[in-house]
Amino acid sequence: MRKEISCHLCPLRKRGCHSPNTEQEIDFIQSFKEYEREVAAGQPILREGTASDELFTLREGWAFRYRTLPDGRRQILNFLLPGDFIGLQAEINGKVLYGVEALTTAHVCVFRRHNLWDLYRKFPSLGYDLTWLSAHQELIVDENLLSVGRRSASERIAMLLVHLHKRAEAIGDHDPRGIIFPIRQQHIADALGLSLVHTNKTMRRLEGSGLHEIRGGRLKIRNIHALQKLAEYDAIPLRNQPLI
Amino acid sequence: MRKEISCHLCPLRKRGCHSPNTEQEIDFIQSFKEYEREVAAGQPILREGTASDELFTLREGWAFRYRTLPDGRRQILNFLLPGDFIGLQAEINGKVLYGVEALTTAHVCVFRRHNLWDLYRKFPSLGYDLTWLSAHQELIVDENLLSVGRRSASERIAMLLVHLHKRAEAIGDHDPRGIIFPIRQQHIADALGLSLVHTNKTMRRLEGSGLHEIRGGRLKIRNIHALQKLAEYDAIPLRNQPLI
DNA sequence: CGATGATTTGACACCTTTCAAAATTAGTGG
DNA sequence: CCACTAATTTTGAAAGGTGTCAAATCATCG
Predict the structure, then answer these.
(1) Are A81 and A122 in contact (CB under 8 A)?
(2) What's the mean pLDDT in B71-78?
(3) How many angstroms separate the CA of residue A99 from the nearest CA in chain B?
(4) Distance (Å, rounded) from C-alpha B10 to C-alpha B25?
(5) Judging by beta carbons within 10 Å of its beta carbon (0-12, 13-18, 19+), is residue B9 exposed, middle or buried?
(6) Cβ proximity of A168 and A180 under 8 Å
(7) Residue A138: closest CA among chain B residues belongs to which residue?
(8) B215, closest nucleotide (Cα–C1')
């Protein structure tokens, strides 16, 4: 048995980035939560195309959700940061169509899908929150689809950097050296529908223009205004999101 | 006042494509439903970037959800068919970031977002359904993102044709001449992240190979096996979806 | 039967991919 | 702490898919 953290003492809640819950709600979440799991960087949290009764909240670390084509081409659908809920996306025949993989060592709280109905029945407010989380994640996928479909390579990269930087800051990653950025260029390429080579050349150009800097696993935005202008990206203002 | 159809007599429910609801649930849906609206083809159901308290169920007709960049580039996020729920996607500062436009004359049932909480509280089962609908729509956006990011032009088109054909059949559009297909090539281009010209040339080639046929506003699939193979597309098996 | 919108074609430019390989960084065992 | 290997990042060159521009053909409709 690993050391488990009580939901009442969940470090995420202390960040002040989440909408508050009543004691009873947190009690329920605590009972809903089955256990906690640590996943090593590069390891799957959810395997594409498998049956799984598990749902997760990413408590610590980064991850990403993706789909692949039979011939191996991979598309990253969205990146997951601490506080994100995983597994809400629809299943088909009991199997998830996407995979989730940890980018860093990740800690996830594990829930059971078959207990979901209980949550809706006993705490409609939490059900409401789940819908909100689902809808919010779709918003991000929407934005990615807009990027991949209609933005040029440099615009896409600018947009992604601004987006991730904003999200990381919103959950408390402030550091003069920049946010922790555990992403390889291959991930960026896979998220933006670009080839690795072209991703590299484009990033090289942006970095050369002094728009940003990536070093030592950290991303430092040097000219957020220029990046936002380049991407025609009105970064989504982030409000407090629910935490289950 | 227009002629309104009682939810109990909703023609959609008779299709047998939706999960059943209790009498009480339908009563509530009826009370949740504010009124019904007819939207002409090409007219907006929801304006991008505006504040709106309205939610909809598309009762009849086709529509699509989209986002645009400031310079006018447009990306269609997904197509909406009868039975689809509209407006669940997150709002930011009370404004929807996407737009919805009717492709044909459309009939929508109008609900109020501020009544949503009531729904969750009184009928958790319906709240559960809403989450399902939200998750299911995200599934479709996921698939589109995978397409736009990783499939070639002809693969994307093959995938979209199979996908729409399958959905149309699932809701009862069976006709030896093919399904009703109220989409212009510009829509296909905008949905797949392609230019109109290249979309046309690619479709011409596919049609020339006898894979499909579009005529008189109908889509006839001539070789579904080849299309699925081309797109490496395991069409999502459609189960009964909830109807609100 | 014009008028407007949609589809179709051809030519050409260019952004992005692919192929190959070097340079750099990170990771591991001695 | 250094040698060694794997992983990641960078570069260069060339091929190719897709976009852009322009104009013709076709369809729909009042």
Answers:
(1) no
(2) 96
(3) 12
(4) 13
(5) exposed
(6) yes
(7) B138
(8) D27
Using the CB atom, is residue B196 less than 7 Å from strand C? yes
3-class secondary structure per residue, B112-142 = EHHHHHHHHHHCHHHHHHHHHHHHHHHHHHH
CA distances, A17 to each of A5, A130, A243 (Å):
19, 16, 9
pLDDT value of position A234 = 77
Is any atom of strand C within 7 angstroms of residue B204's beta carbon? yes
Q: What is the pLDDT of residues B45-64, one digit of tens each?
A: 999 999 999 999 999 999 99
Residues in A touching B192 (Cβ below 8 Å): 149
pTM above 0.85, yes or no: yes
pLDDT for A94: 84
Question: Which long-range contacts link A143-146 to residues 24+ away (Cβ below 8 Å)?
Answer: A143/A236, A143/B67, A144/A77, A144/A78, A144/A191, A144/B145, A145/B75, A145/B77, A145/B141, A145/B144, A145/B145, A145/B148, A146/B67, A146/B69, A146/B75, A146/B77
Enumerate residues 6+ apart whose C-beta is below 8 A from B191. B64, B75, B76, B78, B79, B144, B160
